[in-house]
Amino acid sequence: MTPVFKHKITDVFFDLDHTLWDFEKNSKLAFQKLFEEFEIQVSLEMFLKYYEPINLQYWKLYREDQISKENMRRLRLLDAFALLNHQLPEDLIDALAEKYIDYLPQNNHLLPGAVEILEHLKPHYRLHIITNGFEVVQHRKLTQSGIIHYFNTITHSESAGVKKPHPGIFHHALQLAQTTPQQSVMIGDNLEADILTAQKLGFYTIHVHSQNSITNHPTSLPFLTQIKQLL
Predict the structure, then answer these.
(1) What residues are paired with 131 via a beta bridge?
(2) Residues 6+ apart with CB under 8 A from 169
(3) What's the CATH architecture for 11-21+110-229?
(4) pLDDT digit string (tens) for 71-83?
């Protein structure tokens, strides 16, 4: 992969969850604390086996404005426990949903290579975040993981008024960064949310995916550190 656009780029935009911030690991630790505190008598590993794909499905509905934030938080838990044939009172589900959001940013493991690639890029580019995550929670993640100082701007879907993959959030981020798509790279893990719309708008794009994923995207990398090949 030849860095053909190396000298054109001034700004690099990152997604946060699943791209820099290790969502699965930090989420597991948050649930572990929840299960201990509320004495949930269910195997954590079995719960996560069901919860993780359900969570992705509900995030897709949330991105598409088909479900509210509150219902997403509640229903992803209800559905996961239902598949385990473990019924919990609705007030307990709501308490778990609220506490989970509090506990999630208390663990701030980053994906392998995250700090290394930010250190590599920071001297040469302006760095930015575009995230669909909730503004207060994402700010805590960035601050408590020790990476917020790398970024010139942070665009949240709540402040932009629309969520990725809506073009509006990318336009908002570009305006905030005072740059253009032709000078910018978008880096993320989700083809639909992070990559395809950005590509249509004229961004260069880099898709960072799971090693087990298969993708035909032309700049698709299994490791963050391989971004050095392109930038």
Answers:
(1) 156
(2) 130, 132, 155, 157, 160, 162, 163
(3) 3-Layer(aba) Sandwich (3.40)
(4) 999 999 999 999 9
